[in-house]
Amino acid sequence: MSDARPTERTVMGALGNVLWVVLGGFVFFLGYLITGAVLALTIVGLPFAFAIWRVGLYALLPFNRRVVDRKNSLGSGCLGVCFNLLWLFLFGWEIALAHLGMALLCAVTIIGIPFAMAHVKLAILALWPFGKEIV
């Protein structure tokens, strides 16, 4: 029975990703992509652009993936905390609020509960993206 579990997760995750993209996930991805492109126009915004693109790729296909802490990287030390605090006050709370609002809308129906959980995970990542890795 344990052999069937990873395959079942993969199939359900793939189905979840397809439904996610069709039912609005692509819109979030485009929003992240465009925002990252605007931030990348300046040298100062480049680290934030990379962070928002990482979140955007996770927002495109959130199922069968998870967020883990990245060890020994530029974003995991003191500089990462500074970037995360700046991010939180400038962009993070607004993005997280949008995802939490969508999570509430998705949670109204039983079918939307997995999508609501994905939005909650995205909201958490949107609050503190530096020093995180999506696997």
Automatic annotation (TrEMBL):
<feature type="transmembrane region" description="Helical">
    <location>
        <begin position="40"/>
        <end position="61"/>
    </location>
</feature>
<feature type="transmembrane region" description="Helical">
    <location>
        <begin position="12"/>
        <end position="34"/>
    </location>
</feature>
<feature type="transmembrane region" description="Helical">
    <location>
        <begin position="102"/>
        <end position="128"/>
    </location>
</feature>
<keyword id="KW-1133">Transmembrane helix</keyword>
<dbReference type="InterPro" id="IPR052937">
    <property type="entry name" value="Inner_membrane_protein"/>
</dbReference>
<protein>
    <recommendedName>
        <fullName>Inner membrane component domain-containing protein</fullName>
    </recommendedName>
</protein>
<dbReference type="GO" id="GO:0005886">
    <property type="term" value="C:plasma membrane"/>
</dbReference>
<feature type="transmembrane region" description="Helical">
    <location>
        <begin position="73"/>
        <end position="96"/>
    </location>
</feature>
<dbReference type="InterPro" id="IPR031308">
    <property type="entry name" value="UCP028777"/>
</dbReference>
<keyword id="KW-0472">Membrane</keyword>
<feature type="domain" description="Inner membrane component">
    <location>
        <begin position="15"/>
        <end position="64"/>
    </location>
</feature>
<dbReference type="InterPro" id="IPR005185">
    <property type="entry name" value="YccF"/>
</dbReference>
<keyword id="KW-0812">Transmembrane</keyword>
<dbReference type="Pfam" id="PF03733">
    <property type="entry name" value="YccF"/>
</dbReference>
<feature type="domain" description="Inner membrane component">
    <location>
        <begin position="82"/>
        <end position="132"/>
    </location>
</feature>
